Amino acid sequence: MTAPDAVEPRAVRGVAAALTALALAGALTGCGAAGAGDDDTMDVWMYQDSLNVVQQAAVERFNAEHAPEAEAVMVEIPGDGYEDKLRTAMGADDQPDVFFNWGGGGIRPYVEADLLLPLDDLLAGDPEFRDSFLPAVLEAGRIDGVQYGIPLRGTQPVLLFYNREVFDRIGAEPPETWDDLLDLVDRFREEGVIPFALAGATPWTEQMWLQYLVDRYGGPEVFARIQSGDHEGWRDPAVLRAAESVRDLVDRGAFGDSFGSVSYTEGAASALLAEGRAAMHLMGAWEYSTQLADAPAFAEDDLGYVAFPTVPDGTGDPANLVGNPTNFFSVTADSPHVDQALEFLRVTTGDEYVADMVANGEVPTTADAADLFAEAPDPEYAEFQYDLVQRAPSFTLSWDQALPPSVAAPMHTEIQKLFNGQSTPQQFVDAMAALR
Predict the structure, then answer these.
(1) Which residues pair with 310 in a beta bridge?
(2) How much is the pTM?
(3) Which SUPFAM superfamilies match (predicted)?
């Protein structure tokens, strides 16, 4: 993602007041029964998904190799409720010791409430560890120049995935331009295939379309202005053009007729692509690992991937990326196991950890990752993604992670209203400019 006011800790009380209304007890599922804040365990909270095998193996190695004073336990939190449960715990007395996050605006409230441990001393005291990461990725774990996050997963740009078999069936090529994309929408509709899988019940999947379109039309400066707190940045012409393009796609049937009831966390959108009922899917790079776990034959034989297409009269560089530079581990300031937690963070650059990531289809954010791509399930995919990240002039963090929760949550509502036809593009712009 500054030091809090030591005299008036209003931020701490604000976090607690806003979050303790949610009950955490009984809501966690995971690899251990220990609760956060237990002095007998060091609890590592993870967003529950198919990539967690890497972190679980790391926890097991850490316990076996370090004989820690407190057993490290990975606690998996279902994706749909992760951020709510984390906010509840951070505002109470059952905080995790180490926890998964996206950096950016999502952790800023915890930094301002003095709930996170600065990690600058860790990096300064271990230059080899610090220099193991790509600098731009490490930067994304800073808030106001202070390091609060250590990269724990691969780089995660949003890519356009497609089903090669479905494309071959109609003799089509993946889109390079917006006109190509619109032509494919019409062609696949005629064939009875949903052009784009979209989990509209999970609004951050819809957000991806707007992120790329705003960047392609107006460049990264448009969202940078918004992220800096200038609410009028939402009135930039690029935002309206992006919203109009979204409505055009919906009206053309690009996402089918029932995308609003499709959930990402239940795997429905990914299944549409794998089963050939949808031709394409705009999703984060983790989609490859998801397909490798759930539909391995499809992932190995028919899963294609390209960059987001260019748009007419756009001023943004077509090489720009949006998504998540990576995910991060942060340490809570009041953890009774701070020294052990800091030692645990070092596993993220270990040879076994990085090799596990590559084997799981991820592209690590370590500087020497390319040396391992020959061991990846699809070396071509790993090289493609790594090259995109290396060449990108700009890599914009996902809006809902870059902005504070007070804006991100209502933004999701407005995005869903736009996609569902409950607001016009101009109404969307007006509503976003009014958010504070």
Answers:
(1) 177
(2) 0.78
(3) Periplasmic binding protein-like II
Q: For residue 213, which phi and psi values (nearest 5 degrees)? A: -65, -40
Nearest to 344 by CA among 140, 55, 31, 8: 55
Paired tokens of 150: 């250590």
pLDDT at 271 over 80: yes
User: Alpha helices of 40-158 — where are they, by DSSP H?
Assistant: 53-66, 82-90, 108-112, 120-125, 127-130, 135-139
Which residue do the tokens 């794998």 mark?
274
Q: How confident is the model at residue 10 (pLDDT cuts 50, 70, 90)?
A: very low
Q: Please report which confidence band the pLDDT of residue 38 belongs to, taking 50, 70 and 90 as the band edges.
A: low
Angle of helix 351-359 versus helix 53-66 axis, rounded to 10: 160
Cα(52)–Cα(100) distance, rounded to whole angstroms? 11
75 occurs within a structural domain:
yes
Task: Provide the domain limits for residue 136.
Answer: 10-155+325-367
Question: How many angstroms separate the CA atoms of 30 and 120, rounded?
Answer: 31
> Are residues 170 and 68 both part of a single domain?
no
User: How many distinct structural domains can be found in the chain?
Assistant: 2
List the CATH number of the domain containing 356. Answer: 3.40.190.10
- 366 Cβ neighbours under 8 A, 6+ residues apart: 132, 133, 134, 349, 354
Q: Taking the CB of residue 232, how many other CB atoms lie within 10 A of it?
A: 9
